[in-house]
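COURSE: Structural Biology Practicum
ASSIGNMENT: Worksheet 4, Part C
STUDENT ID: 0417
INSTRUCTIONS: Below are two proteins. For each, the amino acid sequence is given first, followed by its structure token string. Answer the questions at the end about the second protein only.

PROTEIN I
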Amino acid sequence: MVMKIAGCVLAAGFSKRFEGDKLSANIRGLPVLNWSLKCLDHFDFRAVVLRSETTKLFKIPTQIPVLVNTKAERGLSESIKLAVSWTPWEADGLALMLGDMPFTDRIIPRLLEVFRQEKPEAVAAAFKGKPVNPVIFSRKVLHLLYMVEGDVGARNVFSKINIIPVESQEEYLIDVDTEEDLAKAEAIARKLADF
């Protein structure tokens, strides 16, 4: 039987290092968040986490449920907990992606392949051997994500589980935190369009 995986894009942050809302900044005419949402096409179940005041800023496709994080000021951990609570019971795993990472759709197919073949507790993109986002967690370890606190994400859980790092191209791991990052993402998008 083919494993069913849920995917959730976490996009309830406050863009503190970016002038304005980074998720609505454009890359080749499309908001950063919409680039990030492309990765959800690879999943059996999909959702996005937003703050209530940002839900009207974005045109989220109707087939993607919007989970509203009313405790976003507590950090990324609250979005993670919301995603875990949303995860359908029939899902074998949950992938967490960040809304400010516009090119994760290039990484997800390989992560899904490894997850389905190896059936680990988790599989993550990696840079120089170090696990980074995005991450797919097995259902059997999702309860650990309820213990995360603050704005560090799920990193504290990594040491408690068996995680397979999957080396990924650095340019696909870019996250847009500054205007300089946005310019880099624009250059990457132009390069991808040339293929």
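PROTEIN II
(use this one for the questions)
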Amino acid sequence: MRLTAAQASQVADEIKQLENLFEGAEASVAMLIRRRQQGYRPPFHLLDFKVVVEDRMGRGITAEATVKVEVDGQVLHTVAEGNGPIDALDGALRKALVPLFPQLEQFRLADYKVRILDSKKGPAATTRVLIDSQNGTRRWTTVGASPNIIEASYRALADSFEYGITEVAYASHGRCFTG
């Protein structure tokens, strides 16, 4: 599926505007383009998330994430624990999506990098999170940005899942998700 000239211009403008953000995150750029293509239908929609980090008596620090995602009109609400907030979010997203997209079992978070984009703002600075993922044959990088590091991480993680799912669909069927 190709972009129209107007869509291509919009994507180019958005990439120029967010140039520093997308640097090194080729999968997020690919998702930006896909989302602009007429007829593209994302495999899932993020609805809500919540992360709680606490010190549990005798168990030390633990994180729990709750996510709500929508797939084909069905709302999935899952909870998972992890050794940190990103591990818990990864587990909760997987718990919701793996039954519908079993290829996610093959995806692994290979690297996680955090960078402050505008340090002059101190604690209110925008955080840029890069996530490198792999599935055994390929490796890709996605990005998320927000003043909230957990939200930035969640966006990068969700982009990674969406990219991986659509890449497998394209490799298997020669097309992405379309309406």
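ANSWER KEY EXCERPT:
Q1: The domain at 1-42+107-173 is CATH 3.30.160.340 (Double Stranded RNA Binding Domain).
Q2: The chain has two domains: 1-42+107-173, 44-100.
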